[in-house]
Amino acid sequence: MTDYKNEYVSFYKRIQELKELTGRVRENIDSITEEVTTLDIFWDGDANAEFMTSVSEDIAFCNAILLKISLSIKMLDKAYSQYQEMEKVIEQIIGGIKS
What we know:
This protein has helices at residues 2-42, 46-98. By secondary structure, it is mostly helical.
């Protein structure tokens, strides 16, 4: 049982790392959005309109991917929590049998 516990502790750590990584990606997307907005103020014309359209589509695409990743992380987190709950139940059952 100890090997499984070690694997799930490692699994939990990886979930936390993914959460931190998605947070950093979110910050970078927000930063790019702000910088592009600032750039738009200083640049005018057809090329700017094309650029802004392209960047807006790219940012929307990144946000969609980030949302899917965030939802997947929540599912992994829930699976980990359910594992912990089942582990406690199994330990109680085993403890009852040994008594």
